[in-house]
Write a structure and sequence with these properties.
Strand order of the largest sheet of chain B: 2-1-3-4-5
Strand content of chain B: 5-15%
Shape of chain A: globular
CATH topology of the domain at 37-122 and 195-346 in chain B: Rossmann fold
Number of strands of chain B: 5
CATH superfamily of the domain at 37-122 and 195-346 in chain B: SGNH hydrolase
Distance between the termini of chain A: 16 Å
Number of helices of chain A: 18
Radius of gyration of chain A: 23 Å
Strand content of chain A: under 5%
Helix content of chain B: 40-55%
Oligomer: heterodimer
CATH architecture of the domain at 37-122 and 195-346 in chain B: 3-Layer(aba) Sandwich
CATH class of the domain at 37-122 and 195-346 in chain B: Alpha Beta
Order of helices and strands of chain A: HHHHHHHHHHHHHHHHHH
Structural class of chain B: mainly alpha
Largest sheet of chain B: 5 strands, parallel
Number of helices of chain B: 16
Radius of gyration of chain B: 22 Å
Chain lengths: 466, 351
């Protein structure tokens, strides 16, 4: 079940009506938890067990960490959480990747061994909820959070359906306090939720899904296309993945808000970033802050020599790339971002001497170009194709005679204008002051227009595969 | 409860606004692109007087009738008529009715005869066509009502499921879902090329795409299934005569549907000619309709004993369809029978 499906509308209407008709807080939470599990089971009920394992482990670890004062025992308990969560992730997401990489390496060293690929289904949202539960235990371990003794609260924190399958990766410190007090119906900002949901729906169903066929056409046979087509396809993919993921995040945030919960912001116009560091403050914010707080800082952060800091930056981004998928393409994608962060850190003191307009202008162009180059590795089916496309992208050499479509630069221009309008109007809330019936009429018309642009059958979100 | 009432009141404004907007879009935009249909319709609309005979129906028409062979055979009978295969794979009778009504309303497509195979009087929705333009486009109000009525003989659960699917397709059609997608897809390709896709008209450009010439990767299991189970095929043929002569298969729904088809063809200014292809499962309701004089004519080939060559394994693609050789043979036989029918009615050639 996905947010753009008609059946989700029916599901959510039911969840919403019952949630706001229940008076008892525990019953409300039980209802939301049951609905969350139904939502997940709509994909594959068997993998609910993994969510339960992750929840139970971190519930027990949290309590033990709260009770324990001995440093060694505490370390042991946090190891249990990390091993359990990364173990689940390792088996279901990375087993074949590591096994195949090992076989390739042994083969390279002249020690060939035979290996049959084990077919393992990747459970939806596994990367998101394992990171979320792990962050709870890590926060308790670091003394930043009191462990919850209410199992229902922790289970709902892990399983809450709007963010369960593709984030935003919610922090326990932000979510658990919201479960302690009764939300009031009249306090819910329905207008902003509805506007946010429609914005996300438009991005996903009207933009991303309609761009996808052009992108797929190029990436299925990149060697047949011109350099211009490589540029167009890469820029279109940048638009597709942004609209897909930020659209999902907006719908998730809006859905949660209508149920009385606030999730954190996940995107903030990343393509307008003026440096790669700025980009990561705007793109998938919940993941980048997670990586910063639990990986970069755990590695030592910037508490050492410059070289040590640069190493930590690179390691964080390489692992961040691997988090996205079990493939060397994602590792290289992370590596490219890591390299850019390293260069940015080294250049930053010199860049400050330039006038702001010039440094921001150059920074914007270079960042956008680099991010797009990296997207090629993210999207290409394999490394050799990625190398071939990036050669075409960088050196402007044609790989073949085919053109992707003469009208597509215009489409890109339309999308860029829409993005800019979105940026300039992000703080505008004129619709808040409209009379109810005017808002409702306008909203109905906009929904009608959006529906006219969508594919009749809902298309899956790109980030579900992670 | 004040805020709840306030929101509810706004919903009563929002929903009509949504439907009003969708109705405007529905009215102003062309029907969505359907791969197996739109190129044919575009071709027919661009040459309204080019054809005297239209073949309409499902894959039994689309895959099995070659207008080129049919016309050649008619010329041997001194009938100089041109035909076009407007068959659409998986088209059920209600969809064909929708198409015929569209032809008549637009007055862009004309014909003297419409040869129709009333296929699939029980209207299901194939899994692969769920929530696609292929299935949505024909779900008008009257069509959806008829499609739901056709489910009467099903058991409760499948009937309710199928009713829900038809209602969903109707809703998607009314909401104009996907009607403006073409605006976006046009950025990437030429509109002309897409809407008048010559490949969609078949190798002879007359609408016929035999199984052997089509991308039939999805059909392969059916072919293999047929070859693997020839004893079942023979047993199906053995009970063909009994099934064909069965009584009480013609329901009130069938009568209404067949009458609708005839009315739609007549509104086009054409004469309906009902046909039944050499299928293994005879349509007893159509046979009974002819026996009861509900149908004015019927050219039936679902008789193994009369047309053994059409049932020879080397002429079959699968249990229900012919391969290219079989289709050529069938097109000739159909032309012969059609010529006989015209001779009976007109008493001479039609130069």
């Amino acid at each position: 079940m996905i947010f753009t499906e008609f059946r989700f509308l029916i599901f959510f209407a039911l969840v919403f009506l019952v949630r706001w008709s229940l008076r008892d807080l525990t019953k409300q939470k039980l209802w939301l938890l049951a609905c969350s599990y139904v939502f997940y089971a709509a994909w594959d009920w068997r993998f609910l067990s993994l969510i339960w394992i992750s929840t139970v482990v971190d519930y027990v670890v949290g309590i033990r960490l709260g009770d324990e004062v001995d440093a060694r025992t505490r370390k042991l308990w946090i190891t249990v959480s990390v091993v359990a969560n990364l173990g689940i992730l390792g088996v279901f997401k990375y087993f074949n990747f590591f096994a195949e990489s090992l076989v390739s390496m042994l083969d390279f060293l002249g020690l060939p061994i035979s290996y049959n690929v084990v077919h393992i289904i990747l459970p939806v949202g596994i990367s998101f909820y394992t990171f979320q539960t792990m962050s709870y235990s890590l926060d308790v371990y670091r003394g930043r959070l009191e462990p919850t003794r209410n199992f229902l609260n922790l289970a709902l924190f892990v399983g809450f359906f709007p963010q369960l399958v593709a984030g935003p990766i919610v922090r326990a410190s932000a979510f658990l306090p919201q479960l302690l007090k009764q939300a009031r119906f009249q306090d819910v900002d329905f207008r902003s939720s509805m506007v946010l949901f429609l914005s996300g729906y438009f991005k996903k169903a009207c933009v991303s899904d309609n761009i996808a066929p052009f992108v797929d056409r190029f990436f299925s046979a990149p060697d047949e296309f011109t350099a211009m087509s490589a540029w167009i396809a890469t820029l279109l993919y940048a638009a597709q993945i942004y609209c897909d993921f930020s659209g999902y995040s907006e719908m998730a945030i809006a859905t949660a808000r209508m149920l009385g919960f606030e999730l954190g912001e996940n995107f903030n116009f990343p393509y307008l970033a003026t440096s790669i560091r700025d980009f990561w403050r705007r793109w998938h914010i919940s993941l980048s802050t997670w990586l910063r707080d639990y990986l970069y800082i755990s590695l030592g952060g910037s508490r050492g020599s410059e070289l040590f800091t640069l190493r930590n930056l690179m390691l964080t981004m390489l692992l961040g790339g691997l988090w996205h998928g079990a493939s060397w393409n994602f590792v290289i994608w992370g590596g490219l971002h890591g390299l850019a962060l390293v260069i940015h850190r080294l250049w930053e003191p010199h860049g400050r001497r330039l006038p702001g307009v010039i440094s921001h202008g150059i920074g914007f162009v270079l960042t956008f170009w680099w991010v797009n180059l990296a997207w090629i590795f993210f999207r290409a089916p394999d490394l050799s194709q990625a190398a071939s496309i990036s050669r075409s992208f960088v050196l402007l050499t044609d790989s073949g005679p085919r053109s992707l479509g003469v009208g597509l630069p215009w489409l890109l221009a339309v999308l860029a204008c829409l993005h800019l309008v979105g940026y300039l109007s992000q703080r505008t809330v004129w619709w808040r002051d409209l009379p109810g019936w005017v808002f409702a009429t306008g909203y109905g018309v906009l929904v009608g227009l959006a529906l006219a642009f969508i594919h009749p059958s809902a298309q899956p979100f790109i980030y579900f595969q992670f | 409860m004040k805020p709840a009432i306030h929101h509810l009141r706004n919903m009563f404004v929002l929903v009509p606004a949504l439907f009003a907007c969708s109705a405007v879009i529905h009215q102003l935009t062309p029907a969505p692109f359907v791969r197996s249909l739109t190129p044919k319709l575009t071709h027919l609309e661009e040459s309204p007087d080019a054809y005297d005979i239209l073949f309409v129906g499902s894959s039994r028409v689309f895959r099995q009738i070659s207008p080129k062979i049919f016309d050649q055979e008619l010329r041997a009978h001194d009938f100089n008529l041109r035909s076009f295969n407007a068959g659409v794979p998986a088209a059920k009778s209600v969809e064909v009715w929708h198409l015929l009504r569209g032809f008549a309303a637009d007055q862009k497509i004309r014909a003297k005869y419409v040869l129709i195979e009333p296929d699939g009087l029980l209207i299901g929705i194939a899994r692969e066509n769920l929530a696609t333009e292929r299935e949505i486009y024909w779900h008008g109000c009257a069509e959806t009502t008829l499609a739901i009525e056709s489910l009467g003989r099903l058991k409760t659960v499948p009937r309710l499921t199928m009713t829900g699917l038809h209602a969903g397709a109707f809703l998607l059609d009314r909401l104009g879902v996907g009607r403006l997608r073409l605006l976006v897809s046009q950025f990437g390709e030429s509109k002309r090329l897409r809407w008048l896709d010559k490949e969609g008209l078949g190798p002879d450009g007359d609408g016929w795409v035999p199984y052997d010439k089509a991308d039939t990767s999805t059909e392969f299991p059916r072919r293999q299934e047929f070859l693997d189970d020839l004893p079942r095929y023979r047993s199906m043929l053995a009970r063909q005569a009994r099934l064909r002569s069965q009584q009480d298969c013609l329901t009130e729904y069938h009568r209404v549907m067949l009458a609708n088809l005839m009315t739609a063809i007549e509104a086009l200014g054409a004469q309906p000619v009902f046909i039944l292809s050499p299928a293994t499962e005879p349509r007893c309701e159509v046979h009974q309709a002819f026996r009861d004089a509900v149908l004015p004519n019927l050219i039936a080939f679902d008789d193994f004993s009369t047309y053994p060559e059409l049932y020879a394994v080397e002429h079959r693609h699968d249990f229900e369809h012919l391969n290219t050789e079989g289709s050529v043979l069938y097109s000739r036989l159909l032309a012969d029978r059609f010529a006989q029918l015209m001779l009976q009615e007109t008493g001479g050639g039609n130069g």
